[in-house]
Amino acid sequence: MERIRVSDALVRLPAAALVALTLGTGAVGAAEPAKEQADTPPAEIRMQFHAPEAEAKDDDPLEPINRVTSGFNSLVRGLILDPLISGYKAVTPEGMQQAISNAANNLAEPITAVSSFLQGDTDNAGNATKRFLVNSTVGVGGLSDPAADMGIRSRPEDIGQAFGAGGMEPGPHIVLPLLGPSNLRDATGDLLTTVANPLPLAGKAAQGTVNYSDNQDVIKAATANSVDPYTTEKAVYQQHRQWEVTNGAIGAPADGPTLADESPSLATKPAR
User: Fold this and answer.
1) C-beta atoms surrounding 31 within 10 Å
2) What is the pLDDT of residue 47?
3) What distances in angstroms separate CA 185 from CA 16, 125, 178, one per listed residue?
4) Rg of the chain's alpha carbons, rounded to an integer?
5) What SS3 class is residue 201?
6) Total number of domains constituting the chain
7) Torsion, CA 211, CA 267, CA 125, CA 144, rounded to 10
8) Measuring CA to CA, which residue among 209, 234, 227 is closest to residue 29?
9) Do residues 182 and 7 touch, judged by C-beta distance below 8 A?
10) What is the pTM of this model?
């Protein structure tokens, strides 16, 4: 069974819309590559509620401000991103959507290379470097993914994950205008990435649009059926980030419901 990875799409939507508008193409297509364990794509993200003792921990001292910002982001998503994606998918051939998705993924490979190196993961750093070089040249600027055909698989990493793997705590929950849910650690990582080179971060934002495009309906259903969409969104982000930081080593807690679906059309990574 494939678990639906809704979190990246849920937390980077308005920003990705702005990137899409800037590029003038919408940047939608196949979804963001999932974490991989021993050459087998796990694509396993569970959306669950925290246990009561976890809820007692105050990790959201900015909740009043965060709720206002989350509502604003949701409004932007509904007014701009949803119509943009729906219109784009209606008029754009699937092959072109796939090419744009590949290009967005390729732009994020330098982030993966640096982040993996900071974690001492030289294998993944090397793979990301090779993928970027191969796809940028043979793949014509990343529009195709010949590296995957050569068996060089993608396992995305970012600076926030590197900080987390090094033992840094997430810090307080933050909802950024247009960028969506984050925390002090991850926001700092994104800021450092932007200062060093804004282009890879644009790729990461475009990946968020890609993921949201493929899982648009299920994401809407997840928040629409929630008693408190803000709490659901926060829980999805926090649990997904924990899973990413540990490379899937920490599973979801036993309590609470799991968002899953058998449909391959909702998988976040197409078969290669």
Assistant:
1) 25
2) 42
3) 20, 21, 18
4) 17
5) helix
6) 1
7) -70
8) 209
9) no
10) 0.68
Partners of 183 in the β-ladder = 173
Amino acid symbol at 256: G
Rounded-to-integer distance, Cα 154 and Cα 161, Å: 16
Q: In this structure, is residue 211 part of a structural domain?
A: yes
Handedness of CA 182, 188, 192, 195 (dihedral sign): positive
The tokens describing 89, both together, are: 């998918």
Q: Would you say residue 138 lies in a domain? A: yes
**235's tokens:** 């829980």
Q: From CA 105, how far away is CA 200, in angstroms rounded?
A: 9
Task: Give me 237's structure tokens.
Answer: 């982000």
Which ranges in 146-228 belong to alpha helices (H)? Answer: 146-149, 159-165, 184-196, 198-214, 216-224
230/35 Cα distance (integer angstroms)? 26
> Which residues are paired to 40 by β-bridges?
37
Interatomic CA distance for residues 7 and 265, integer angstroms: 17
Quote the pLDDT of residue 201: 61
Domain that holds residue 67: 7-266
Beta bridge pairs of residue 37: 40
State how far the alpha carbon of 205 is from the alpha carbons of 28, 32, 43, 141, 264, in Å. 11, 11, 19, 18, 24
Q: How many residues can be counted in the chain? A: 272
What is the C-alpha separation between 141 and 28, in angstroms, rounded? 17
Inside any domain, residue 115: yes
Q: How much is the pLDDT for 204?
A: 62
> From the first residue on, what is the mean pLDDT of each consecutive set of 10 residues in the chain (272 residues)?
42 39 34 41 42 54 96 91 85 89 87 94 97 97 95 94 95 90 93 76 65 68 80 90 87 41 28 32
Is 44 contained in some domain? yes
Instruction: Give the pLDDT score at 24.
Output: 34
